[in-house]
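User: Just a sanity check before I run the rest of the batch. Below are the structure tokens for the first item. I only need the designed sequence back.
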């Protein structure tokens, strides 16, 4: 058994590392810089500790068990399992962009052989694997689906930045294009996932299960975000309300906040798109998305209101934004909603300085055209916004950053009495 993992990002690398503890694995990626970095034993995403990565690395694709990373198609041509772990983003109109899936399917199709199994992990709407990806595999390879080659699906459940719930400790859903292949896919994952697996009856069921996981979280967060807006109008502490309500055993512990990242802020659009194609308008899913996507502007407006009440002249004022990654203690800036807050503040004529010790300034500049700093500035600001709950910010000396009338706004609700306002 030889496994190729296509895509070595936040999902692919941890999985490839795990498979490499038992199998011969080739990690394939088109980013030469990323591959060179990994083969040197370093991971800039910080998902796999360098020592752990180095323990499974091998010097060539033909070597025995272990992981070799490559950009060379020849290095994966003798694999018999291909696991696709590429991103599934949305475009500027929030429509699913399947380009990475099409491109990776073309790549696999060039080396596909009789008896091979192609497993997709990317989050999609039901039907993408068999209706969109498989035809690409058939066209490029010239082979026939479910006769010459087979497909599987096992949706990723990686939680970036989480060092407790690592890939092997999260139960994995599996599925195959035939019952027999389903068993093979399930056994493959079961051999490395200590938390166990759940074999779904079909690929479409597994795809649907994944996409509703994050849609459910999105809707629940939208509900508490709306509660936050209501209670702020009533001058009631939303977090105190949630703490009191949480004393009931079946109350769900969601908190208000900005919903970004590559999953919760994206996946509901995949389900909504497919529903609309089938003639159904998904009201609750899209309502939740609209509300959550509006929270960046809402945060900015709340900060500006507090500044005005303090007598701060808004136009030309200075704001320090603490954090730009999409979540705490993680360098991932994909689809971060902090940029919505920054844009809204700049629309008010405010000068914004962004400090994030976790984010790569070059990556932020490339993704959003925004300048960030990695060291805490020594200036004083008219307002300070805690946007991301990095550990470094919890004990920060806010007094040294404030002017006489400065405002501190806490998006994450962790600063307590230090904050003048919070979600």
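Assistant: Here's the designed sequence for the first item:
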């Amino acid at each position: 058994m030889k496994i190729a993992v296509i895509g070595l990002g936040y999902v692919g690398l941890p999985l490839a590392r795990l498979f490499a503890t038992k199998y011969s694995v080739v990690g394939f990626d088109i980013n030469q810089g990323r591959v060179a970095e990994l083969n040197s034993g370093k991971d800039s995403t910080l998902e796999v500790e360098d020592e752990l990565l180095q323990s499974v690395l091998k010097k060539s694709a033909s070597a025995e068990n272990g992981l070799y990373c490559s950009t060379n198609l020849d290095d994966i041509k003798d694999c018999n399992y291909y696991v696709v772990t590429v991103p599934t983003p949305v475009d500027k109109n929030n429509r699913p962009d399947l380009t990475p899936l099409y491109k990776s399917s073309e790549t696999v199709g060039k080396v596909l052989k009789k008896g091979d199994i192609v497993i997709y992990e990317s989050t999609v709407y039901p039907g993408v694997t068999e209706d969109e990806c498989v035809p690409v595999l058939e066209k490029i390879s010239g082979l026939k689906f479910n006769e010459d080659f087979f497909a599987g699906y096992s949706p990723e459940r990686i939680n970036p930045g989480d060092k407790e719930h690592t890939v092997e400790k999260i139960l994995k859903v599996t599925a195959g294009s035939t019952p027999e292949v389903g068993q093979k896919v399930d056994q493959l994952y079961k051999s490395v996932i200590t938390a166990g697996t759940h074999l779904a009856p079909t690929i479409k069921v597994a795809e649907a299960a994944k996409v509703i996981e994050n849609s459910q979280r999105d809707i629940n967060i939208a509900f508490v975000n709306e509660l936050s807006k209501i209670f702020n109008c009533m001058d009631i502490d939303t977090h105190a309300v949630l703490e009191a309500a949480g004393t009931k055993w079946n109350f769900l512990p969601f908190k208000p906040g900005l919903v970004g990242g590559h999953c919760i802020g994206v996946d509901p659009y995949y389900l909504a798109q497919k529903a609309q194609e089938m003639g159904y308008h998904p009201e609750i899913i899209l309502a939740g998305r609209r509300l959550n996507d509006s929270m960046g502007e809402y945060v900015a407006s709340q900060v500006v209101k507090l500044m005005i009440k303090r007598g701060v002249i808004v136009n030309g004022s200075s704001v320090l934004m603490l954090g730009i990654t999409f979540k705490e203690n993680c360098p991932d800036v994909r689809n971060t909603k902090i940029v919505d807050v920054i844009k809204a503040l700049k629309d008010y004529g405010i000068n914004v300085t962004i400090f994030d010790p976790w984010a790569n300034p070059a990556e932020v500049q490339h993704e959003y055209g925004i300048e960030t700093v990695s060291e805490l500035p020594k200036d004083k600001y008219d307002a300070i916004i805690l946007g991301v709950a990095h550990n470094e910010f919890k004990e920060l000396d806010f007094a040294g950053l404030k002017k006489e009338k400065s405002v501190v706004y806490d998006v994450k609700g962790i600063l307590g009495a230090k904050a003048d306002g919070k979600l």
